[in-house]
Amino acid sequence: MSFTMNPFAVLSDTIPAAVMQAYVVVMFLLVVGGTIADMVHKRSAQYFFENAEKAKKARVKNVGGAHKAGIAVQTIAADVLTSAEFCNQRRRVAHLLGMYGFVSFLVATIAMVFFYPSPAMATPAVWPVLWHLGALMVIIGGGWFWFFIRVDVSAEGHPWHRIVRADLFILSLIATNLFGLIWSAAQASGWNAWSSIFLALFILSSLVLFGGVLWSKFAHMFFKPAAAFQKRVAKADGSMDNLPAPADRSNPADRDRHSMELLKDAPLNMGLGIKRERPQHY
Ligand code: HEM
To answer: Which residues form the pocket of ligand 1, taking CB atoms under 6 Å from any ligand atom?
Structure first.
């Protein structure tokens, strides 16, 4: 396999570039349609805005525009770009591999299909390299997640091969990248029959990935940043998602609360508690 070869340019001998471009546009429209249908079906946008209104009423501090802009920057820099919401570092690294891999794979696909779709146009090596490397990162990060980190396997003890509907996203994501990579290798080696089979599997799995948004976790990549932003705002304005502030027993008002009675005379530092066992769930 050559990491510097544009597989779509080679494919243009059998499938016209316009057909490939139309396919990518249809996939994009499926994602937009699926995300909107998901929001309507789960009424998640309505819940989100109603919840934000409720939080506004419960806030104890006003968070101004400049502060909110700062929170948005923090959300992008930490929660989006470095997957900071994950407490478990293995999950975080696997997510980063999958996320950056998928973004590289997507951007490189668009660049190659729309701007360099024929062997007559010299494709800058950066695009095929990003495409192959991106696919490899998704396979490694996604495979690590699927075989070892997934809650069903790591915490609930189910075998790795047990499949439920919630696996639609991760499985179609890995399949699209894996079949794409094998198709590219088979095509570069001139194994025409294998290349046709894996091209068909690549098309089928990408159709499931992009067409299955309504039933899969695909849209979390759009919703999670908004939720992470709202979570930070709720902390900053004191509305705290309707949760009580963390109890501080050095504060007499907290210490003397009825629910704290049993802890009144307990030492302030009570050791590791549940942190004694290394958290491996989530
Ligand atoms: C290209 C973009 C992305 C890809 C490929 C991706 C991939 C994944 C995968 C495979 C999972 C595991 C899902 C499962 O349980 O089956 C996951 C979970 C998660 N992702 Fe992403 N993700 C992306 C973008 C994002 C972004 C932008 C955020 C946040 C700002 C995010 C936050 C999360 C969180 C918090 C979880 C775990 C919690 C949960 O399962 O609900 N992801 N992601």
So the answer is: 79-80, 85, 95, 98-99, 102-103, 145, 166, 169-170, 217, 220-221, 224-225, 228
